[in-house]
Amino acid sequence: MSKHRITLTVNGEVHRLTVKSNELLLNVLRDRLHLTGAKYGCGIAECGACTVLKGDESVMSCLVPAVAADGWELTTAEGLVTADGELNVVQEEFLEKSAVQCGFCTPGMVVASTALLRENPDPTEDEVRDYLRGNFCRCTGYHAIVEAVLAAAVDAQNGGRL
Amino acid sequence: MNTRFLEKEYDYVKPATLDEALDILAEKENVKVLAGGTDLIVKLKTDALEDMDIMMDINSIDELCGCCINADGDLVIGATAKISHLEKNDDIKAAYPALSEAMHAMASVSVRNMATMGGNFMNASPVADTAGPAMCYGAQVCLKSKKGERTIDATEFFLKPGVTAAEDDELLTGFVIPKPADNTGAAFVKIGRVKSDIAKVSITAVMEREGDTVKSCRLAMGSVAPKPLFLADIGAGLEGQKMTEELIMKTADQIRDFVKPIGDHGTTAEYRKEMSGLIARDCLMEAWKRSGGELA
Prior knowledge:
The complex is a heterodimer. Chain A is of the alpha+beta class. Chain A has two domains: 3-80, Roll (Ubiquitin-like (UB roll)), CATH 3.10.20; 89-157, DNA polymerase, domain 1. Chain A has five helices and five strands; from the N terminus they run ββαβββαααα. Chain A has helices at 25-32, 89-96, 106-119, 125-131, 143-157, and strands at 3-10, 13-20, 51-54, 57-60, 73-75. In chain A, strands 2-1-5-3-4 form a five-stranded mixed sheet, with helices on one face. The longest helix of chain A is centred in the C-terminal third of the chain and has 15 residues, at 143-157. Chain B is an alpha+beta fold. Chain B folds into three domains: 11-57, Uridine Diphospho-n-acetylenolpyruvylglucosamine Reductase, domain 2, CATH 3.30.43; 63-177, Uridine Diphospho-n-acetylenolpyruvylglucosamine Reductase, domain 3, CATH 3.30.465; 184-290, CO dehydrogenase flavoprotein, C-terminal domain (Enolase-like, domain 1, 2-Layer Sandwich). Helices cover 32% and strands 24% of the residues of chain B. Chain B contains eleven helices and 14 strands. Chain B has helices spanning 18-27, 40-45, 83-88, 90-95, 97-104, 109-112, 117-123, 131-136, 232-236, 245-258, 269-290, and strands at residues 11-13, 31-34, 54-57, 67-69, 75-78, 140-145, 148-153, 158-160, 163-164, 171-177, 184-191, 201-210, 213-222, 229-230. In chain B, the strands form four sheets. Chain B has a five-stranded antiparallel sheet. In chain B, strand 6 (140-145) and strand 7 (148-153) form a beta hairpin. In chain B, helix 10 (245-258) packs antiparallel against helix 11. Chain B starts with 10 loop residues before the first strand and ends in a 6-residue tail after the last helix. The mean pLDDT of chain B is 97. The interface between A and B is medium-sized, with 35 and 33 residues.
């Protein structure tokens, strides 16, 4: 089995790592970089708990061989927070609208919603629901999550940080 | 089954050029191609893939990742172009709406940011959403090996579940899809349990109109046969006929009676058969409407 030197930029920090060909990006983020925001849910890209940003696009880190992510710039839910602990508008509104219950889906939801608002600053409710169709939540019934994303869109348009 | 780790051991290679990739396919055994990984990695995790000694990542090969309109006005899609980029492409949205709709209907945005049309074809699932539109728009699949290159009509590409007409030493490099004629209308309709699920059944129609008659019609379905199904005869049977609501109803019934789907976890054969007729009706009506036609 081959081993490879790779460079990952995660939340602005550059990491040089040696990875085995069969190591997965999600496990590298969680077990080696200790960024536990992205979660292992289903492992086959059906639930969205492992969602991270590659540039401004969301991807499922459970299906990415770490070696294939060489050179990628990634953002996890941790990276949406500034150095002095300020949350982005999506994270703020998830708290404000009580869009969090058990919290397991939340990092993926927040990351995917941030990608949505960076691409489409003024989405309709239908667009939010469609965009988040790959992120499953078993607690909230989605209503509060959708409300939070719509409120975050307004915040971002008023100058809030996305 | 363990979806947390990849237990399988293999070598990973990432050729920088197409030539290098074709060398690897010609010289090595048990090579699997990594494009988006949304099928390959799932198969590795679920032990659905028996022989893989080498994973070949083709994402560094620049000439495979593009999408453009060529000098003839045809659409050219590279093997590693991401589904999410293609579905938002203005040329595809305008001229190939059924393809754009099929792409948007796939999985979730995060999966589509990774997945490719090349992968959808090589995975060769009977459910493959891009297969129907590709077949109906007359897409040619481009294959390349050390021995040369060839194109194969999309309707002849799929052989059985997971098996295609591509040889082991051939790489799918992309697709060329002819420019649709004027007065062409097309639609893609799919039924899934929820929107992010794979299709229980899907249908594509591409229809060319001449006044109030059908000049040509191509139909294809997903999830009703061991491979994506091109309904050559039923489509051709509409040619030259005056379009009416009655003709659509008759054709939808004909499609329902013709398909022989199987039942599997979550969907019965009877349901697939009934829904085939229902979505055929919607799809034909929408395609005709988009061609500029009215229903008598």
